[in-house]
């Protein structure tokens, strides 16, 4: 079992020192989904929710969240992100919106938390935008799909 990198030998929470790590090209991609009523699904997909264009608002919220991850997750390093893509797709059978966030950078630490945060906040924003229609929406299955760069190399979730 590998050791936790954010806990020192005395059990104290610490920020990992990355000063000696080489700068490499890094990428992380995460996905998640929100299940909702058919009425809420149509409003999200068509962009005509009571509060406005649901997915465009969710995209902007996810971009902002990914850029500000280190302000929300205490031991994350601030990163100089070079690219964030947030895309949405639809599962018509499940009345679900799927969000995918890809984060790219050149740096000494990875972007997994930024991608996961981008997905999470995008989905939370969809909930906020559609809650007048459906308060029973379910956000689920948020996970890292792929990451590349750094010492651990390329990872693809199976």
Short description:
With 158 residues, this protein is of the alpha+beta class. Helix content is 29%, strand content 30%.
Descriptors:
single chain; 158 residues; Alpha-Beta Plaits; five-stranded antiparallel sheet
Q: Helicity level, as a percent range?
A: 25-40%
Morphology call: elongated
Q: Rg to the nearest angstrom?
A: 17 Å
Structure classification: alpha+beta
- The side-by-side strand order for the widest beta sheet comes to 2-3-1-4-5
Give the tally of β-strands.
5
What is the CATH T-level topology?
Alpha-Beta Plaits
What is the CATH class?
Alpha Beta
Strand content: 25-35%
Q: DSSP helix count?
A: 4
* Uncertain residue ranges: none
**Count of discrete domains:** 1
What's the topology here?
Blueprint: E1 24-35, H1 38-46, H2 54-67, H3 69-72, E2 81-91, E3 96-107, H4 112-130, E4 138-148, E5 155-156
């Amino acid at each position: 079992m590998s050791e936790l990198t954010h806990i020192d030998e005395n059990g104290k929470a610490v920020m990992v020192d990355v000063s000696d790590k080489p700068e490499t090209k890094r990428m992380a991609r995460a996905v998640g989904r929100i299940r909702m009523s058919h009425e809420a699904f149509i409003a999200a997909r068509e962009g005509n929710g009571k509060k406005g264009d649901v997915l465009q608002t969710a995209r902007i919220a996810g971009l902002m969240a990914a850029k500000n991850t280190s302000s929300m997750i205490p031991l994350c390093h601030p990163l100089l992100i070079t690219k964030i893509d947030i895309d949405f797709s639809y599962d018509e059978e499940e009345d679900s919106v799927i969000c995918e966030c890809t984060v790219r950078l050149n740096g000494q630490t990875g972007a997994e938390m930024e991608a996961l945060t981008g997905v999470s906040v995008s989905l939370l924003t969809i909930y906020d935008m559609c809650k007048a229609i459906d308060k029973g929406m379910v956000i689920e299955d948020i996970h890292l799909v792929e990451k590349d760069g750094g010492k651990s190399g390329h990872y693809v979730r199976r």
